[in-house]
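quick one before i forget lol
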Amino acid sequence: MNLHDYLSVAPEIAEALAAGKPVVALESTILSHGMPYPENVEFAHKVEKIVREEGAIPATTAIIGGKLKVGLNDEELLTMCKAENVGKVSRRDVAVYLATGQTGATTVATTMIIASLAGIRFFATGGIGGVHRGAEKTMDISADLQELANTPVCVVCAGAKSILDLGLTLEYLETYGVPVLGLRTDELPAFYCRTSGYKLDYNCQDEETVAKIMKTKWDVGLKGGAVVGNPILEQYAMDPDYMNKIIDQAVAQANAEHIHGKAITPFLLAHIKDMTGGSSFAANLELAYNNARACSKIACAYAKL
């Protein structure tokens, strides 16, 4: 057996890639583990619609029936949104899910893997994983960061999830040579918040500049991807001081309940949603839409180079 036995690319996406048209990868963890049904179906359709409106082809990823899926039909999308036995799959889990035929939602790391295998260079998500608070004791560091160091996919996001240690996440990315580019910002966005206090070395004023940087990186043979920090739009942003207090309370609750591993991020996001009366959830949707828009523009600019 070879890769083609495992990789299932939707015809529309295969045709677009063969013709050199822009394609944007999308994850499925946010659908299976980030929001309830039927809001997740509405969200998925809206994100794909935004990508198309900007001139690119959306490619939502998942692991279904022993296949790495690139582009989901309506039935497959419904499976990811409704089924209760959908696992959260990172790099270490991919072979297990393929071999056993389990249904898996793709994290940032797994989406990057699948995108790269299919020949997709750009991926829009809410926020990347990173170094968790207290990682100097727990060693809880997302596999997303190693994927960014090794897999040639540009990830457009609202920074790292603000439940993380953003300073250590930046240090880790620097150590492994991952460029972190601000899109019209000189600070790392903090997911729900436009600013984090952590300065970035590069502030790209337009999507075309990001596309040129990525083309140059890959042309000269530098491996790995990049993080593009795209701040949530001003009208949907949340106050940093308020959010930091909420996050501290959520982290303390997780520690008290001994929540760790794969369960920690969904637990914290759900806790924050409750504590903010749902406003963090609304912000999460808007930042994801904004990232899909920006990523599509970058992918379109890249296709013209």
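fyi The radius of gyration is 18 Å.
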